[in-house]
Write a structure and sequence with these properties.
Layout lengths: L4 E13 L4 H13 L4 E6 L2 E4 L9 E12 L1 H14 L14 E7 L4 E2 L4 E2 L8 H10 L6 H6 L5 E5 L11
Antiparallel strand pairs: 1-4, 1-5, 2-4, 3-4, 3-8, 6-7
Length: about 170
């Protein structure tokens, strides 16, 4: 990873897991995000339970984290994928159940479209498990129309932001 530095900006990361100890996996992911170079955790949403979409398997736990980072978008993506890999993430097929999923949802106000990365995340507007926790910590990034469009998806806020415990970097 080149660790290219950019001016510090905000990035929003979607977290999800539906295999193993999901809550512990998400808490460890937040700790790993806080430990990344040139990055600090600015906010963490509450914890949500949601049904899988376009997939099978157990229910997911989801959250969104806001980062302040100087990492360039592709370096941030590399760091997210390394955290997933360390958590045992496998990609046997699209939408497979997972121990950890970290999605780069938004990177400042940038629009990015390259082979490895599309930002804003192309399906975030179709997913209650992204929009509800994002609206909790960055309401200006989500519209009422978007929330209404996902209103039929099964999702429940089960804990506030304290779920993550004490994370270094806050």
């Amino acid at each position: 990873m080149s660790q290219a530095q950019a001016p510090e900006g905000r990035a929003w990361i979607g977290l999800g897991a539906n295999l193993g100890d999901r809550g512990a996996a998400l808490a460890r992911a937040v700790q790993a995000l806080a430990a990344m170079p040139a990055t600090r955790v600015a906010q963490v949403s509450g914890l949500y339970a949601s049904a899988p979409i376009d997939a099978g398997g157990p229910d997911y736990l989801n959250a969104v984290v806001e980062l302040a980072t100087s990492l360039a978008p592709l370096d941030l993506l590399d760091a997210l994928q390394a955290i997933e890999q360390a958590a045992g993430r496998e990609r046997p097929y699209r939408n497979a159940p997972r121990t950890l999923d970290l999605d780069l949802l938004l990177y400042a106000d940038q629009q990015i479209a390259c082979e490895r990365l599309v930002v804003p995340h192309p399906r975030m507007g179709e997913r209650a498990f992204v929009l509800l926790p994002l609206a909790e910590i960055a309401p200006e990034r989500v519209t009422a129309v978007q929330l209404e469009a996902v209103g039929d998806q099964r999702i429940e806020r089960i804990e506030g932001p304290e779920w993550v415990g004490t994370v270094s970097g806050f």
